[in-house]
Write a structure and sequence with these properties.
The complex is a heterodimer.
Chain A: H1 3-24, H2 29-56, H3 62-81
Chain B: H1 2-7, E1 12-18, H2 22-35, E2 41-47, H3 54-65, E3 70-72, H4 81-90, E4 96-99, H5 111-121, E5 125-129, E6 136-138, H6 142-159, E7 171-174, H7 175-182, H8 189-202, E8 207-211, E9 213-215, H9 226-242
Parallel strand pairs in B: 1-2, 1-4, 2-3, 5-8, 6-9
Antiparallel strand pairs in B: 4-7, 5-7
Helix pairs in contact in B: 2-3, 6-9, 8-9
Classes of the chains: A mainly alpha, B alpha/beta.
The structure holds guanosine-5'-triphosphate (GTP) and magnesium ion.
Guanosine-5'-triphosphate binds near residues 46, 47, 101 and 220 of chain B.
Function (chain A): Stabilizer subunit of the dolichol-phosphate mannose (DPM) synthase complex; tethers catalytic subunit to the ER.
Main location (chain A): endoplasmic reticulum
Protein name (chain A): Dolichol-phosphate mannosyltransferase subunit 3
Chain lengths: ~90, ~240
């Protein structure tokens, strides 16, 4: 099954649930009618929150850049001795 | 343990595409040999006619390490990354394939952990991830981080791929699996990396992750711009309807 159909099936299930809610009038109609808007807003907030949290906790590794510099020096030294052209380039 | 790699009969073909990586290719070859001492492997360099003389350096490296360990499989002109992988794959003699960039943003010191993870779990694909404990990125500005996080959240919500880092390209594959999956991939750039892993995941292949750190290339700037973002969104839509 293509992935888009899975997502559509999920949306249809949610829509069915919503229509069910409207009909049984378990909660006031005026609330129930606004539910889709609330859920879209919630989804948007969730997305923004995830991006924000991800950004704040973005894993960085400054020490790796230093280690890499040492590796580069070691490599150049060895390769130069073996006659590989690693000059200024 | 180390000896078992050799006796286990596994051979690893490391495919490195290059375009103008004269200095980097020498450094990365040295580092691969430094970190994979007791492993049977070959390095396949797919160079697309780099004008900076990358191939000359590769020939010098062959003198040092042997032509059976370093294979130069050049192509006449710049034909793109996706086809570079397939080209290298055609010449791979190992039963496992590693794909990595030559620009030192993928450090060879992580190769043993890819191999170890695969041996422990029997996974078909081991993919390097920057977004878990022990992983990380260096050298990205705020804008680059923001697009990366945004792209990731979007892809996770829409595609449910089961992998935390979709666009990284430092990975180890069973050769047969890569051959099968790559033949159905048509995207370019970042989307190509995403397409491979999503298709493999949909086919039910066992995918494992290992943390890697990513130090952005020191020279030259990243090409991430508006057109890249549009391309990414198109790719996402394409994967939604075809996988
Ligand atoms: N054979 C071949 N290799 C390529 C081509 N384009 C890029 N490469 C290589 O593919 C690897 C990844 O390319 P990069 O230019 O680093 O791409 P990137 O990591 O997305 O972008 P940067 O931010 O510039 O690092 C490097 O080893 C390049 O030399 C190509 O057309 N042909
Ligand atoms: Mg790069």
């Amino acid at each position: 099954m293509k992935h888009i159909f899975k997502i559509m099936a999920l949306l249809v299930a949610i829509a069915a649930l919503w229509i069910g809610l409207l009909q049984t009038s378990m909660i006031p109609q005026s609330y129930a009618l606004l539910l889709p808007i609330y859920s879209v807003v919630t989804l948007g907030c969730y997305g923004l929150l995830m991006v924000g949290v991800g950004l704040m906790q973005f894993p960085t590794c400054p020490q790796e850049a230093l280690l890499l510099q040492q590796d580069i020096i070691e490599a150049k030294e060895f390769l130069q001795r073996k006659g590989v052209d690693v000059g200024s380039g | 343990m180390e000896e078992q790699h050799k006796n286990g009969g596994n051979k690893y073909s490391i495919i490195v595409p290059t375009y103008n990586e004269r200095l980097n290719i020498a450094l990365i070859v040295f580092l691969i040999f430094k970190h994979l001492r007791d492993v049977d492997f070959e390095i396949i360099i797919v160079d697309d006619g780099s004008p900076d003389g990358t191939q000359e350096i590769v020939k010098q490296l062959q003198q040092v390490y042997g032509e059976d360990r370093i294979l130069l499989r050049a192509r006449p002109k710049k034909l793109g990354l996706g086809t570079a992988y397939s080209h290298g794959l055609k010449h791979a003699s190992g039963n496992f394939v590693v794909i990595m960039d030559a620009d030192l943003s993928h450090h060879p010191k992580y190769l043993p952990s890819f191999i170890k993870k695969q041996l422990e779990t029997g996974a078909s694909i081991v993919t390097g991830t920057r977004y878990v404990k022990g992983g990380g990125v260096h050298g990205w500005n705020l804008m680059r981080k923001l697009t990366s996080r945004g792209a990731n959240v979007l892809a996770q919500t829409l595609l449910w791929p089961g992998v935390s880092d979709l666009t990284g390209s430092f990975r180890l594959y069973k050769k047969s699996v890569l051959e099968e999956v790559i033949s159905s991939c048509v995207s370019k750039g970042y989307v190509f990396q995403m397409e491979i892993i999503v298709r493999a995941s949909r086919k039910g292949y066992h995918i494992e992750e290992v943390p890697i750190t990513f130090v952005d290339r020191l020279f030259g700037s990243s090409k991430l711009g508006g057109s890249e973002i549009v391309g990414y969104l198109k790719g996402l839509a394409y994967l939604l309807v075809t996988t």
